[in-house]
Design goal:
alpha+beta; Outer membrane efflux proteins (OEP); five-stranded antiparallel sheet; two-stranded antiparallel sheet; 11 helices; about 10% strand; elongated
Length: about 500
């Protein structure tokens, strides 16, 4: 059995490569700051209290996950909402961006492993003539060179910059997932908001239709009294003006209703011509929504989760910038077969190999690395400020809609009383006019107040339903940070 004896040079090469391999396996030390989630301004309790009858939620209680819109018990709304995740183009775009972020993780992880390349070749070459040791002259010949090289290179992650890049890619993927969830929440909420606004218009239309019918009866009354000589032509003109004004207002409501219907069609990924929503007058009141402590909001908003993950990714960039101060270690190995005859190409005698290790260090860069490190720190500070601002905005949105629901509930009660009073006043004025002891101007005034108060009641109910949707959105729609995918889930979803 033949044995090859390594020369001193070969031993030194092998030793250097072994040492570099040990450095790589040890993983070195990851330079740079470890990530710790910065604090955000949080109050002990919400300033605005929920409407009367609502209770503070237990620490673990929240809006039911997933189909939060089902709390309204509206089958038509449920059917529309089901189409958002499937057909809304903005949601589909966010989903594609998440897939792109997952693929970026695979790209980053590939740097943790060696790269192997090969470039087989068959080359014809002319070798010039030469003089042999015996004095004979050898003429030029043409040789065929068969080459099958395999090159392997590996950058040892001694300072942790590659691992930090992978960690940053994971954090960015989680941030992209949270952006996707935020897009879903936003467009689901927008659809519900438009849906209740549309049916709020239906309430106004129903009110004006009933008003037009009543005004037609008042016009008939004044015409009959005019023919009997107990009413003036001015009464008839005033009644007709009131009727025509109500008809114009009724026609105008069709514009906004059509726009809401078109907007809903786009949200579910359909051309406006393909969607028709049947009229319906709102008769429900906002359902009670569990309100947890303000600190829980930081875990229940996907936009806050996205901002937090962006901070984590930015923190890793600081470590990557710091690692640039240290030398990089590149391990390389080459091997293969090289021969001038095809029959000898893949034999042991034609085998070639080489091993090497390279250290690379920048000696002077005119402050470039310092600037890059300062830039990474500034970028991290930006993400911290964005995270805290996003948190503050979330608290504001919850407070705004809690206040809106509580105040609108009180306003609804006052308006309902005003509607009752206005109807009673109109009834009295009408009887007095029929009896000839009141002018028609008094009737018109009572009619105006009655219409205004009834319209206010309809609009307040619409605003209450919209505020309840916005409150659910502000609370995260039942989402929480535990739904963020971990590393294994991100990698599994790329297969």
């Amino acid at each position: 059995m033949n044995r090859q004896v390594l020369s001193g040079r070969e031993i030194r090469h092998a030793t250097l490569c072994a040492l570099a391999g040990l450095l790589a396996l040890a993983g070195g030390c990851a330079v740079g700051p470890n990530y710790h989630r910065p604090s955000a301004p949080v109050s002990q309790a919400f300033k605005e209290q929920p409407p009367e009858g609502w209770k503070q939620a237990e620490p673990n209680a929240a809006i039911p996950r997933g189909k939060w819109w089902e709390v309204y018990n509206d089958p038509q709304l449920n059917a529309l909402e089901e189409q958002v995740n499937i057909s809304n183009q903005n949601v589909l775009a966010a989903a594609a961006q998440y897939r792109e972020a997952r693929d970026a993780v695979r790209i980053a992880r590939s740097s943790l492993f060696p790269t192997a390349t090969t470039s087989p070749s068959v080359t014809e070459q002319r070798v010039v003539g030469s003089v042999t040791a015996g004095g004979a002259t050898r003429s030029a010949v043409i040789e065929t060179l068969y080459d099958l090289p395999v090159d392997v290179s590996y950058q040892a992650d001694v300072w942790g910059n590659i691992r930090r890049g992978v960690t940053a890619a994971y954090a960015n993927a989680q941030a992209s997932f949270a952006d996707l969830e935020n897009a879903r929440l936003s467009y689901h909420a927008q659809l519900a908001e438009f849906y209740f606004a549309l049916h709020g218009q239906d309430g106004d239309i129903d009110l004006l239709q009933r008003t037009v019918k009543a005004y037609e009866e008042y016009l008939k009354l004044t015409q009959d009294r005019f023919e009997l000589g107990v009413a003036s032509g001015a009464d008839v003109a005033q009644a007709k003006t009131q009727l025509d004004t109500a008809r114009a207002q009724l026609i105008d409501l069709g514009v906004q209703r059509a726009q809401f219907e078109h907007a809903i069609a786009i949200l579910i990924g359909k051309p406006p011509a393909d969607l028709t929503i049947a009229p319906m007058v709102l008769k429900i009141t906002p359902p009670a929504v569990p309100i947890a402590l303000p600190s829980a909001l930081l875990e229940r908003r996907p936009d806050i989760a996205a901002s937090e993950r962006q901070m984590a990714a930015a923190n890793e960039q600081i470590g990557i910038a710091k690692a640039a101060y240290f030398p990089s270690v590149l391990l390389s190995a080459s091997g293969g077969f090289e021969a001038t005859r095809l029959s000898q190409w893949l034999t042991a005698s034609s085998g070639v190999w080489s091993l090497g290790m390279q250290l690379a260090e920048t000696l002077f860069d005119a402050g470039k690395r310092r600037a890059q490190l300062d830039s990474a720190r500034a970028a991290y500070d930006v993400t911290v400020a964005n995270y805290r601002q996003t948190s503050l905005t979330a608290f504001q949105q919850v407070e705004d809609n809690l206040a809106a629901l509580r105040i609108l509930e009180q306003e609804a009660a006052a308006t309902d009383a005003a509607v009752t009073d206005a109807e009673q006043s109109l009834a009295i004025s009408t009887e007095q006019y029929k009896a000839g002891i009141a002018t028609y101007l008094q009737v018109i005034t009572a009619q105006t107040f009655a219409l205004q108060n009834e319209k206010s009641a309809v609009d307040i109910l619409t605003r209450r339903m919209t505020a309840s949707v916005l409150l659910i959105e502000a609370l995260g729609g039942g989402w929480d940070a535990s739904q963020l995918p971990n590393r294994s889930e991100i990698m599994a979803s790329t297969k």
